[in-house]
Structures are given as C-alpha cells and as structure tokens.
Design brief:
Helix content: 25-40%
Structural class: alpha+beta
Radius of gyration: 24 Å
Number of helices: 10
Distance between the termini: 33 Å
Largest sheet: 6 strands, mixed
Strand content: 35-45%
Number of strands: 21
C-alpha cells in the first residue's frame, strides 16, 4: 500500500509540517520527544485532523483539506498500536483481540479469525487472562494481535518497545519483525531509539521541531544525516561548529583544531562518530592528551584533547574495544580523523 502524507497542523508554539511517501517496507520516524512523530501517526489514523494538506493510501484519499475530505478512523482501515497498548483492562485476551475482528465478519468467521491470530502470535494459552495478568511483552503481542486481526491496510507502531524492560526488548523486537514481514505492507514505526530503528526499518525519516530533516534508505541516512539534529539522533557524540577557511579547510571551533576536507556548500558543523577516530598517522593527524577514560561494559571511551587545542576545547570521544585500548594506553597518543568519516552538517 502506497502512503502519501503532506500535512500541516498548528499548535501554540509548534507547527507540524511533514511530507513523505512510503510504498511497502518499514519507514521509521526518528526524533526526540515532542518533535511530532506520534502526532503524525495520529493524523494518518484520523484521530487528529490536520489544518491543511492531504493523506492518500493506495490512491484513496483519507484526508484532503481543499476537497473537504476527512474519513473516520474506522473508514481508513489503518492499524495504530499505541505506546501503552490501550488494552481494555476488564476484557480477556480473547475479548480484546475480538474487538479488532468486528468489522465485516459474521460470528463464526470472527471467532475463527481471533483463534488463528492468537495461535500465530503464540497467545492461545493466554486467551482467558486479563491484561493485568500478562507481562509487558505479552501485552504488546495482544495489542499487535488486535490490530492484525482487523486486516489493516497500513500498520503503525508508536514506540512499541518503550514500555518493556531492556531484557525483554530483544526477543519482542524479533517477534515484531517476524509479524511485520508476514504483514507484507507499509509499516510506520515511531521511535527515539536509533539502535531499535536500525534493526527494524528499511528507511528512516529524521524529524526535528515538526519538520522532516532527512529521509531515505536507513544506511544512507545514518551515513550522512545532514543536520545537527540528525547527527545526534543517529548516535554521533562528537559535534563541532566550524569556521570555513576555504573550500578544503575549516577550523573546528569546539575542538580547537584545523581540518582538511572537501567542504560542501552550506556546511556549518562537523560530526565524528566515536568509532571513526583512527590511531596513528593519516588524514588530519593530531597528537592528543588523554583527558579521561570511561569504562563501558565491553569497551572504553577515551576522551582526547589535541595538544594544539586550547585547554577549554571540547574533548573528542573515541570508543574502542577494551583489549585494544589496554594495548596502547598512554597519557598522550597520536590519532587521525579521515576526511571521509567527518559528517558534514547544516542547520
């Protein structure tokens, strides 16, 4: 199902203005809290009404402000799984899922659809339990079953793993990926977790302050996020404003060092992922003092301050495996920053 979204919705002090298309596969909306991710899903589902614009699903108009079309949530036939799942607490698992099977089915067909869906998601043994008697992962599967049994044309998941303990997320993600593949249609996934998005999505749209700042294949967006917000959201910890010297040289103001790279038009900041720092001599080589060493479960983060940089410059983080750092640990070390690894950013 091809989805086209081009809408504007204004609030006091905030305007949501998003435009994108997705035809099959999973598009993840990545952004910080309050950037408009969940509101975008609510507008597509028909729970919120945009001020202007249009929303089309497989050629059918769900919303068009100029043509005064605004289909009801029921008529849109899209499935939205809320962050807190919104299960009916007084209903059993079977009854909750049955609520999603009401449209267009006779009694016998409805009961059969519920049973088949529960079986597929491994919930048959829990059919008589109430939501309060389920784990977080089981509640998530029930909420997903209630959506899938309705045969939606579009599947939307709003922070589907945020309510789960970390030890439950991996298995639940795996189960959800399997159901997404079985669904086979267009899926929208909202998250602020870049690792979760990298594992779940084919394409990524970065939202910041109600706008889509970058959109494209997952690997391309992570490799070149384009904006400061996108850089931070995709996990880059080293960020510096720059002063352009010429087309091939810039001063990294926060790091206090000159850098050589072919600058794109409009670049006003640079990012450097912590795994992109390289030991030894190469492009943009600097002798650095070790300002701090932070131990992580399986790595060290070494905070480097170039010897030539001012004392008040921002240290540059370098993450590397524990055995590698232990083999080279010193108070000063020579590293280089390959030009191709420097993320060029603007805005």
């Amino acid at each position: 199902m091809a989805l086209t979204v081009d809408i504007v919705k204004r609030f006091k002090g905030f305007t949501l203005q998003v435009s994108f298309t997705q035809d099959g596969g999973t598009l993840a909306l990545l952004g910080a809290s309050g950037c408009g991710k969940s509101m975008t899903l609510r507008c597509i589902a028909g729970i919120e009404k945009p001020d202007r614009g249009r929303i089309l699903l497989d050629g059918e108009t769900l919303f068009d402000s100029e043509r005064h079309i605004n289909l009801s949530p029921q008529a849109r036939r899209v499935g939205l799984m809320f962050q807190r799942y919104a299960l009916f607490p007084q209903m059993t698992v079977w009854q909750n899922v049955r609520c999603g099977a009401m449209r267009g089915r006779t009694g016998e067909a409805r009961e059969r659809a519920v049973g088949e869906t529960l079986e597929r998601l491994g919930l048959s043994a829990l059919a008589d339990r109430l939501p309060a008697q389920l784990s977080g992962g089981q509640q998530q599967r029930v909420a997903l079953a209630r959506i899938l049994v309705s045969k939606p044309r579009l599947l939307m998941l709003d922070e589907p793993f945020s309510a789960l303990d970390s030890h439950l997320r991996f298995r639940t993600e795996e189960e959800t990926r399997r159901e997404i593949r079985a669904f086979g249609g267009t899926v929208l996934l909202v998250s602020h977790d870049r690792d979760e998005i990298f594992r779940m999505a084919d394409r990524v749209a970065i939202l910041d302050a109600g706008r889509v700042r970058a959109i494209g294949p997952r690997d391309e967006v992570f490799a070149d996020p384009g904006s400061r917000a996108g850089c931070l959201l995709t996990g880059c910890k080293n960020l510096s404003a720059i002063r352009r010297i010429d087309g091939n040289h810039a001063e990294a103001l926060d790091w206090g060092i000159p850098l050589e790279l072919a600058l794109r038009e409009g670049t006003d900041a640079l990012g450097l992922r912590m795994h992109s720092v390289r030991p030894g001599v190469g492009e943009n080589t600097f002798r650095c003092r070790v300002a701090d060493v932070v131990e992580n479960p399986f790595s060290f983060t070494v905070m480097l301050r170039p010897v030539a940089a001012p004392e008040n410059s921002v240290p540059i983080g370098w993450e590397l495996p524990k055995d590698e750092w232990r083999a080279m640990a010193a108070r000063e070390i020579t590293v280089h920053f390959p030009a191709g690894e420097l993320l060029q950013l603007k805005g």
